[in-house]
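Example for tutorial group B:
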């Protein structure tokens, strides 16, 4: 069985000074871009079996927009993982190694710079945008099969896309 990891940075957010970072919301464009990301995933056949999402409001809103655009008949399992908000690249890889092998496609929704570092570590030879993952940027990696084997150099980059409306 092959494994596919879709790494997605949250969509564009508001810059409200009186709101805690974890509570920042998407802008109107961010909501549209999340839907565009879902449409791209659907058009390319990337339908998640499980979603690992930061608990921040902007990542939850990004997932909601994607879920609507995907029009899934069977909802994937969704886990809101605090390590995707507070952790580093090593923490995220450890979290991914804990995914049961029955899940073929994982959608990981979180924040930079951590997600860009994880993507770069999985396929250090791949050419990338110099700005790494932009808001609502996707990086699709082919995994080694078993999630327990995922680590540096073990996830060939298949595609990148930045969703915009």
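The residue assignment follows.
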């Amino acid at each position: 069985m092959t494994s596919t990891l879709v790494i997605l940075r949250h969509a564009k957010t508001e810059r409200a000074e009186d709101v805690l970072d974890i509570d920042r919301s998407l802008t109107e464009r961010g909501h549209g871009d999340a839907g565009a990301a879902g449409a791209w995933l659907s058009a390319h056949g990337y339908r998640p079996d499980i979603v690992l999402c930061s608990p921040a409001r902007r990542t939850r809103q990004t997932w909601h927009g994607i879920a609507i655009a995907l029009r899934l008949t069977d909802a994937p399992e969704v886990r809101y993982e605090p390590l995707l908000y507070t952790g580093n690249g090593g923490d995220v890889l450890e979290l991914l190694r804990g995914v049961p092998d029955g899940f073929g496609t994982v959608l990981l929704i979180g924040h930079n710079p951590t997600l860009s570092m994880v993507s770069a570590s999985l396929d250090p030879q791949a050419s990338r945008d110099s700005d790494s993952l932009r808001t609502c940027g996707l990086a699709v990696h082919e995994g080694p099969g078993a999630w327990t084997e995922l680590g540096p150099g073990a996830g060939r980059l298949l595609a990148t896309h930045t969703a915009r409306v």
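The radius of gyration is 15 Å. Compare this with the pattern of hydrophobic and polar residues in the output above.
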